Structure prediction request, 268 residues.
Amino acid sequence: MGKISRMVLGAAMTAALSVTLAAQQAPVGFHTITCVKANAGKGAALGAWVADVGPKWDKALVESGRARGTIVLRAEMPQGKDAACDYAFVTFYSGLPPAPMTPAETTELLKKSGIQMTLAELGQKESDLATLVYTNITQYQTLVGGAKEGDYLVFNSIDPADANACVAYEQKEWKPLAEEMVKAGGQEGWALNEQVFPRGDKDGPAVSTVDIYPSWDAFLHHGQSISDAWKKVNGDAKIDDAMGQFEKLCPIEHTQLYKVTEANMPQN
Prediction:
């Protein structure tokens, strides 16, 4: 199946996998990321479809208790053939992700959402508009702040030689900076993530970070925000030494800029 099935597939995992995850990690911070590309000539139609049915589906998903929240991201840079995803759909869970919905459960949720389509019609519509690139299970190790509709989000794919060393250094050195930047208003949030499944040499970055900005202007001037936060947190210590260590332990392989077009998250 190469086509988009965001609603039909839901969280692409099994109960057996959930048992494995429970044995390995604390059941918090889990979310799935579903990446899709618009089919040729269908970019505008996909955007209209996402804006129309997305909020209805996501609201029903959260109200049903299957998810804690959702965020929809639209690619800003790069776009076109060089963009990994034209849209990324993120679904957050209160604990371990549940097993995929059955056709009957999906049909019931369609009815609750008010989307006037059968399961077959939904699948056909999605296949016509876009192609599923990947879906994965990710867990944030650290989360500061959060995202709201209209924010700009930078997703940094990191390819560390030692994932544990990278995560530890990010938590030690960058988390205090992120907290200061959020406090000062230069950022809305920051997250440090590890991809849980799939996790092989060809399955994407093991580690990623997310920087969330409240406006385009804040994104453009994030360098000044970092500099100001560094001085607040570290005084006269040289930032170049820390940046050099980041490049060594947590080399960024790729960055993608998104705009948050929908955020359906709990307020607490």
The chain has two domains: 6-138, 140-260. Strands lie at 30-38, 69-77, 87-92, 130-145, 152-158, 189-197, 207-213, 252-264. Confidence is low (pLDDT under 50) at residues 1-24. The chain is about 40% helix and 30% strand.
